[in-house]
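MODEL INPUT / OUTPUT PAIR
PAIR INDEX: 1
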Amino acid sequence: MSEDTKSIFDPANFVPPEVPSAGDVIFRSAAGGWDDACLHYGPDVWLPYTLGYKEAADRLVAQIETEHRHHDLLVYPIVYLYRHYLELAIKGLIQQAQKLLGDTVEVPARHTLVELWTMCSALLERVSPGDSIEEQRQIGRLLREFSSVDPMSTGFRYPVDTRGNPSLAGLQQVNIPNVRDVVGKIALILDGAQAQMGYYADCLSDHIAGGN
């Protein structure tokens, strides 16, 4: 053993890791420092949640593609993050469409993607009849596939379901970049619908403000 190696294992050079202490708190502010994240900003409180989950998943996939490791560990949080993004994005569109149409605004509490998309698609048809019919049909097909694997948003969060049965039974491999790419295609349509309804809402506000 070399002298340099010996010095690493010398007790005099050992720095113990930090462990929880009475002075620790989980949520604190750095008084405006760069490490602080701002919450509750902007008029659309749904948007940061929605975009945040997709951004986190995209970054993890990019890390895997760069480092070529940890696929078997990160697949679970990655797919969960994408699924939660889809759920939040669809629920956000439902709420936005209800406001635009003058309906009672009710954000569905359920997690079933197919039911949520059926409701969302019907509202989008009322907002803009005849738009993106084929794209919406394909989104419905893809969400049915997702739901067949993870119907209640628990499959990629827990190794067993509430009855103790193994999660993701029958699914052996997942191509992670493909999940990102397909969700990205869905996101193009969802983002477009969000922007279109935002434009319609602005036009309606201008019309009301102008007294016309």
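PAIR INDEX: 2
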Amino acid sequence: MFKQIFLPIILVAAFITLVGLLTQGKFNSFLEKLPVSNNSNLKTIFIDDKEIKVEVAKTSEEKAKGLSNREKLDKNSGMIFVFDKDSKPIFWMKDTKIALDIVWINDDKVIGVEKNVQPEPGKKDNQLKKYSAPTKIDYVLEVNAGFSDKNNIKSGSTVQKLSDL
């Protein structure tokens, strides 16, 4: 008798609660805090012999969001931004909460690393520091600050598995 009466009531209450959270946007903020490793868009690249799990940003929306509002980035992981050949994008730390290394990549080679780029909380968009590629690129990799030094990633390092992105 319990299952016939109370179980449907409990299920309806849970459904109403979930719908309420979704309509108020509270569930979305929970989903945004999930770690990068839960993303189905995760791929693997290698820089020299170092394996890195990367979340891929291809669309304008994915690139604009980047790693903003992330509380942490898993060890040996990052986000790779895919650009048209011979692009020269500009990056900033808008709404970014963690320090990063920005790795500029062209033709399967690292061409530069911007190390230990710090968040700039409270600054207006026009006050944020801008980071430009040293030359034309086709990929940009963001990883935890210090990752490049720890793994000896520098200009000339070879990047593999980019074709799988």
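PAIR 2 NOTE: The chain has two domains: 1-32, 37-164.
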